[in-house]
Specification:
Distance between the termini: 37 Å
Number of helices: 10
Bound molecules: 1,4-dihydronicotinamide adenine dinucleotide, alpha-L-sorbopyranose
Order of helices and strands: EHEHEHEHEHEHEHHEEEEEEEEEEEHHE
Strand content: 25-35%
Mean pLDDT: 94
CATH architecture of the largest domain: 2-Layer Sandwich
Structural class: alpha/beta
Number of strands: 19
Length: about 400
């Protein structure tokens, strides 16, 4: 069986998730399209890189991502670094002829994402963007029902992503609060997952009308140690404060090209909400509801349900639903974050081996960035904004 050498850039939170997926993928999907080999992991210091290699099971480590991108033994470059580094690494990897999977959001904005899309298209390499939540079996089941016409023509999509890890004003100013590193706040960090759901399940978004808020305008700085999300940082005892220049929260009305309407909102300041990533979709013949915090379940209600049994009922995902054969043998046994990454890894490596387009890919990452840019512009101008396409379809 073919082996594919992985060069993974970044050994933090997502480094762990992707390394787990490389190890686990062939255990779930057998025969695997190819065996991912954890060849080299890169981080910014020798200590971090060495530790990441030991912890995440990589054969080698490095502090020089350029050398790894140009290493002829590497087949796939996996970008799991903060958002401001994605473009430079991806463009160099494309030029070196490597297949690329990048974490979301693809870039700091649409213009930068377009340079990445241009680079992978010019190089003819395979490319994927890691919107892994659409790999949750219940989300893929919703997609199947929609494609089969089970809820009819879609009227409305209502999506949320609510977390509370930054509601505490003492939660430190990690890179996720800095525009030059993150691009935007809750919008790019978590709102883009909902935008991905909307595009995947309903279709292209044409217009947005949004409001953004920064509830906590300054936060304690940090220089090392480990923060709540496992990011390596030191939090000094007597820290100065620094300005937050991104959104803590946004809400946007949306219009789809196919005539459906809806809303998307995201916040990291909602006490009590942890990974409250949801959608409710209303169609002419039924409705679907999903909440990632109950990720084995899809709530369904159909117009032809008996009149004495109106309301949502729960479908549990399992062997008979999407990805079921590869996963666990009993419905509701429990899908986790790891499984979504394992499926994502499988689908990307399969696209490489079978020479098909990976999905979602940099084109999708770029379209999501166009929508995110339009949301920011709309919030600034207080008006409906058409989603532009920068001349790149
Ligand atoms: P993190 O801060 O935990 O880890 C990033 C790692 O990259 C750190 O170890 C850091 O030292 C390293 N790094 C930074 N610059 C580097 C460089 N130039 N060369 C090599 N290593 C470098 O961040 P996390 O949470 O892993 O996020 C990484 C990316 O993954 C972000 O784009 C984020 O938005 C995305 N993400 C996606 C998730 C999803 O559900 N799909 C979940 C969490 C993060
Ligand atoms: C932090 O808000 C975060 O880790 C995001 O960066 C991820 O994309 C999300 O899936 C989980 O939360």
């Amino acid at each position: 069986m073919k082996k594919m050498n992985i060069g993974m850039i970044g050994g933090g939170f997502m480094g762990k998730a992707h390394a787990l997926a490389y190890a686990g993928m062939p255990m779930f999907f057998w025969p695997a399209p190819a065996i991912p080999n954890r060849h080299t992991v890169v981080d910014v210091t020798e200590e971090l890189a060495k530790d990441a290699a030991a912890r995440l099971g990589f054969e080698n480590y490095s502090t020089d991502w350029r050398a790894v991108v140009n290493d002829p033994d590497i087949d796939i470059i996996d970008i799991v670094t903060p958002n401001n580094t994605h473009a430079e690494i991806a463009i160099a990897a494309a030029k070196a002829g490597k297949h690329i999977i990048s974490e979301k959001p693809l870039a700091l904005g649409a213009e930068e994402a377009k340079t990445m899309l241009d680079a992978v298209r010019a190089a003819g390499v395979k490319h994927a963007v890691a919107f892994n939540y659409r790999r949750t079996p219940a989300v893929a089941l919703a997609k199947k029902y929609i494609e089969e016409g089970r809820i009819g023509k879609i009227l409305n999509f209502r999506g949320t992503y609510l977390q509370d890890w930054s509601a505490d004003p003492n939660s430190p100013l990690s890179w996720r609060f800095q525009k030059k590193i993150a691009g935007s706040g809750a919008l790019g960090d978590i709102g883009t997952h909902v935008v991905d759901f909307a595009r995947y399940l309903v279709g292209e978004i044409s217009d947005v009308n949004a409001v953004t808020k920064t509830w906590i305008p300054e936060r304690p700085t940090q220089t090392g140690g480990v923060d709540k999300l496992g990011t390596v940082r030191n939090i000094d005892a007597d820290v100065p404060k620094a300005v937050v220049d991104v959104d803590d929260e946004f809400i946007s009305m949306i219009k789809f090209e196919n005539g459906a309407i809806g809303s998307i909102e995201a916040t990291r300041n909602a006490w009590g909400r942890n990974n409250f990533l949801t959608f409710e979709i209303h169609g002419e013949k039924g409705s679907l509801y999903f909440n990632y915090e109950r990720r084995d379940e899809l709530q369904v209600s159909f117009s032809d349900d008996p009149s004495d049994a109106k309301g949502f009922r729960t479908v549990y995902t399992g062997p008979a639903t999407p990805y079921g054969e590869a996963l666990w043998p009993i419905p509701a046994l429990g899908i986790g974050y790891g499984e979504t990454k394992i499926i994502e890894t499988h689908d990307f490596i399969q696209a490489i081996v079978e020479d098909t387009e990976a999905s979602p890919n940099f084109q999708d990452g770029y379209r999501v960035e166009l929508i995110a840019d339009a949301i920011l512009e709309s919030a600034e101008k207080g008006a409906w904004i058409k989603v532009n396409d920068l001349g790149q379809k």
